[in-house]
Amino acid sequence: MPYDSFSGEQWIFLIEWHCNLEVESELIMIKKLLWKQRLLWGCTGLIAMGIIGALAGCPASDNPTPVRDENKSASQSQPDREFKILHVMSYHSPWKWTDDQLKGFQSALQDLKVEYKIMQMDTKRRSDEAWIRQITADIKETIDTWKPDLVYTNDDNVQIYVCKDYINSGIPLVFSAVNADPSEYGFDKAKNITGILERMHYVGTVNLLKKLKPDVKKVMMLSDNGKMWPPMLERMKKQMASVDSVEVVGYELIDNYDAFRQKVLDCQNSVDAIGFFGIFEFKDETGANVPMETVISWLAEHSHLPDFSFWKDRVEKGTLCSMAVSGEAQGYQAGLLAHRILAEGLAPSDLPMKSTEEGIPLINLQTAERLKIKPDAETLLSAEVIRHSTLP
Asked: The whole model's pTM is what?
């Protein structure tokens, strides 16, 4: 993106960032271009010039430049009846990834009268067999007794344990954020199931990493051994085969937390960066899942390597960067499918499964500073910037 195409908001963000870094050569260039732009964006230009005149001690903003929402307005039809929708989360709430999907889904259905019932499988925190059996039975009982007009599910675990048993039943099912190929669950032959697939921006994320750290040549991919990760690793292998500038030296699934930490330490002198898929199901010495927040905090303390993943909440908690899938866009597109099923009477099989296309570039500046990485202005202005990690 050329500097002289920046908007007023982008100029102000750039000024704030460079005030913080005290990069004089860039500031001189910005000042000249602001004079060039002043007739195009009027008062904003004058305000920006005032900021340049008061560079000493200028504070950084707490608000990153917003990313344009993918969402489009839903149909304005207003059926008289009230619909019952059961929403089943593979994971839990509050958690931004899950909550954003539900937010997007509900926004697409805001013109309909809907009674929602929400159930949480909570499999990020509880993955033992006894819990899975119990919560699966509870969900199936609710479906069979409450008889919703539609079931909205997200992420893969609920597909594995619940939805496969309702293929070609009389209940429409709509999913979002499913990583596996639909045929793995039998959905390709289901007349009552459709949804939105989660397809990661593997190459885009690595390209963003290269912009931040151009000397990255070798990368290691690590993950817990959750059931959803193997097909994602295979998909990444295929996509990364076309990237000559970076070699992924390994894709490893690890069961326990001690082995994961040792592997990260072993990587410190053998690769240039580490990428992460699942970091929720590493087992501690008691067999319990180690919280993701504990894992990320340990990485910040013990790893000097730049890291990346594929979800916004990871970057918010301290991962360096991601070209992330939007949870809200996933939910919204699923909601549009549900709207057509409920309001227009379409069969799910008439609505093709698809993925959301646009990724959100994200950079954690606090992590960049810890790693002594100084992003250039163009990279910063093309990304959503997280100034401070949500973890201490």
From this structure: 0.68
